[in-house]
Design brief:
With 288 residues, this protein is an alpha+beta fold. Helices cover 25% and strands 30% of the residues. Strands 1-2-8-7-6 form a 5-stranded antiparallel β-sheet, with no helix packed on it. A hairpin with a 2-residue loop joins β7 and β8. The termini are far apart.
Length: 288
């Protein structure tokens, strides 16, 4: 009985202190105005896009097609934009396509299946990226994680291999990719959304496509096809950006199932993210 009384007394005395400390923490967060997400004590991360009345994202559509090399396939992301002002304005854009799945490994559960009495599997909620493709240029994992974090992950993979497991260095998850691209808009593809004047003749169609060489045509090859990442069609008040995401055929092949779109205003130093769109493509059927 005495033990119960002592325990109740200690709980009652600790409640005012916990409430005061909670109130102080809340006041500190509200006073600084920096209650946004921050990782590793870096600069605050603002993932929300700021509304720009000059720009309108009308429609996003997808086409899954075979590559003419016969070694892979392409996901085309067609983005239709509209200008709501009569003057031209410069913007920049990233488009990332990934194959994302949960972290469950069926091979590890062949001998010992997951316990039926445990309803929640934490690996089912964890999302990992199998492969990715970024327009206009791919980003190395070491650049996203940093050299120190990359070396730690590599050391963990090496330990798993020494223990007899099949392990390899994975990619950053989708949120890590989106955060890096949001914080580094300098590498995004620049484009112009025209107004009443419209584009010059040489700006109506802009792309980075490289045609086959005579040798490639004879051998039915097209080595530079995977490097064709964008096609821009511009007109008065409207532009269509088509990004091309290549992935090579492999055992147990899966295609892209998630897309992220980021559009920036390069003339603004802060709060320059204007469009942030994440789309689950799902099991997209082959078009042609």
């Amino acid at each position: 009985m005495k033990k119960i009384l002592i325990l109740l007394t200690s709980i009652l005395f600790s409640l005012p202190y916990s409430q005061d400390s909670w109130a102080q923490n809340q006041a500190g967060a509200e006073g600084t105005g920096q209650n946004t997400a921050s990782v590793n004590n870096k600069e605050p991360y603002y993932p929300l896009a700021y509304y720009d009345p000059r720009l309108r994202l009308k429609k996003v559509s997808f086409v899954r097609r075979h590559a003419d090399t016969g070694k892979g396939e392409l996901l085309d992301v067609q983005i239709e934009l509209e200008s709501r002002t009569n003057k031209p304005h410069n913007y920049s854009i990233y488009v990332i396509a990934v194959n994302e799945r949960d972290a469950q490994n069926d091979d590890e559960r062949k001998l010992v299946p997951y316990p039926s009495w445990r309803p929640w599997n934490p690996q089912a909620d964890k999302r990992i990226v199998t492969f990715s493709n970024i327009m206009p240029v791919n980003v190395d994992s070491k650049e996203i994680w940093g050299e120190e974090a990359y070396n730690k992950k590599q050391a963990e993979v090496d330990k798993m291999i020494l223990r007899g497991f099949e392990a390899e260095m994975g990619e950053p998850n989708f949120d890590e990719y989106m955060r890096y691209l949001t914080e580094n808009p300098a590498k995004a593809l620049p484009f112009t959304l025209y107004g009443e004047e419209g584009p010059a003749k040489d700006k109506i169609l802009v792309h980075n496509y490289t045609n086959q060489t005579p040798e490639e045509k004879k051998a039915f090859r097209h080595e530079t096809l995977k490097d064709h990442s964008y096609t821009l069609y511009s007109n008065k008040y409207q532009s269509t950006i088509i990004t091309h995401h290549y992935t090579q055929y492999r055992p147990n092949f899966k295609t892209f199932n998630k897309v992220g779109i980021l559009i920036f205003d390069p003339n603004k130093e802060k709060n320059n993210l204007l469009v942030r769109r994440i789309i689950d493509v799902g099991d997209l059927k082959m078009t042609y």
